[in-house]
Amino acid sequence: MSHDQAAILEVRGLHKSFGSLEVLKGVDLVVRPRELVFVIGPSGSGKSTLLRCCNRLEEPNAGAIRIEGADILAPGVDINAVRQRIGMVFQSFNLYPHLDALGNVTLALRKVAGRSREQAEAAGMAALERVGLAEKAKSYPNELSGGQQQRVAIARAIALEPVVMLFDEPTSALDPELVGSVLAVMRELRESGMTMVVVSHEMRFARSAADRVVFMDHGRILEEGPPARIFNAPEHPRIREFIASIEH
Fold first, then answer.
1. 6 in Cβ contact with 33 (< 8 Å)
2. Planar angle of CA 59, 64, 65, nearest 5 degrees
3. Distance spanning both ends of the chain, measured CA to CA
């Protein structure tokens, strides 16, 4: 199968099972530069597993995944180099409690990217600046709100200058009043040209910020298209039901 030269992320025929449970049943997804792709669907539809396969936190059983044309499932691939190119932000912030915000952001720059302390701190401060937290550089995670901790986690990912960012339910652990600050950072990233794949239930954000919405159900992509079509005139009644169920 010929692959898409213009794609930043290309997933073809992806299958993943956990024991006898088939979670992904042949997923194809192509993400182009500067695109924000929103993945929606009910719990258990395989959305998070899809993201986790894209940076090999989960190993697919079959299929191909390419980043900028390079097969990341090939034998002998340097997985640390791959993960530098694919930023990942989770539901939980996974910050080190004993490191301040800057320390959390610079750790990977020094350990994974091999930067000097000076280079790492300069890049780390620039990343904190981008998420609006430069003044919290010396604060520890327990001194930050959930929204601030998540923004530090985003800074940690963007400091490595990835070519694509994957967000797995980035706001679902946050108090409602803190969600906006994280979505604002994601919107700014999109406007600055970052390629992003977002799994989230934030439908207003999907309607206003996504280039494309992908609906997954039972391990397959049922439909994809521009937000206006998926939200207002989907082909599948299943999608209408799902959107009605969460937009109360």
1. yes
2. 75
3. 43
